[in-house]
Amino acid sequence: MHLSKKAEYALRAVINLGIANQMGRAALPGSELAEANRLPLKFIERILQELRDAGWVVTHRGKFGGYSLTDTGKIAKMGDIVRKMDGRLAPICCASEFAYQKCSCPDEEHCGLRMIMIDVRNAIANILDRYTLSQVVEVTMRKMRRDGIVPPFATPESAADSNHKQKLKADPADGFLASLSEM
């Protein structure tokens, strides 16, 4: 599976909206969300519009306006967010459960490639459909607190109290499932 930039940015956006909510921020301006992720504002706003159309994000007008998660957004499964942005989780179209398309294979039912890609799709879906956005935010916040990292959108007072540690490589022990098992 290759996650598109659109899906990646959507996931980053909703996770950051969840973190902002945990930090007491009722709404987050799109510009602040784009800056925190180092992403183009126009692209983030289009993604947030799609998330709003799905019922996961709501907009607030005014001086302290911006975007926030709906109650439905907080319990959205990570797989549903990816499907909304990318249309499917399967690496190839003929292995997709929700966005199936016939492939060029002459015997799809006995195709070894399709069979293994269905297993890949199932493994990906089993993880992404197991966790809600709130669970991902909770584990992310717990790991930040454990490592002494100031969460994004924290107040200046809380930022001054923290020391920043930064890891530069992806360690398997830093994965979501590993962090979840530390509970």
What's the number of helices? 9
Mean pLDDT, to the nearest integer, reads 86
The spatial strand order of the largest sheet comes to 1-2
User: Which class best fits the helix and strand makeup?
Assistant: mainly alpha
Strand content: under 5%
Terminal residue distance = 29 Å
CATH architecture assignment of the largest domain: Orthogonal Bundle
The CATH superfamily of the largest domain is known as: Winged helix-like DNA-binding domain superfamily/Winged helix DNA-binding domain
How many structural domains in the coordinates? 2
Q: Which regions are unreliable across 5 or more consecutive residues at pLDDT < 50?
A: 160-166
Share of helix, binned: 40-55%
The string of secondary-structure elements, in order, is: HHHEEHHHHHH
- Please name the CATH topology of the largest domain: Arc Repressor Mutant, subunit A
How many runs of DSSP E, i.e. beta strands?
A: 2
Instruction: Calculate Rg over CA atoms.
Output: 18 Å
Cα shape: globular
Note the main sheet: 2 strands, antiparallel
- The CATH first-level class of the largest domain comes to Mainly Alpha
Describe the structure.
The protein has 183 residues and is mainly alpha-helical. The protein folds into two domains: 5-75 and 132-154, Winged helix-like DNA-binding domain superfamily/Winged helix DNA-binding domain (Arc Repressor Mutant, subunit A), CATH 1.10.10; 78-128, no CATH class. It has helices at 5-22, 30-37, 41-53, 71-74, 78-86, 112-128, 133-147, 156-160, 176-180; strands at 57-60, 66-69. The longest helix has 18 residues, at 5-22. Residues 160-166 have low confidence and may be disordered.
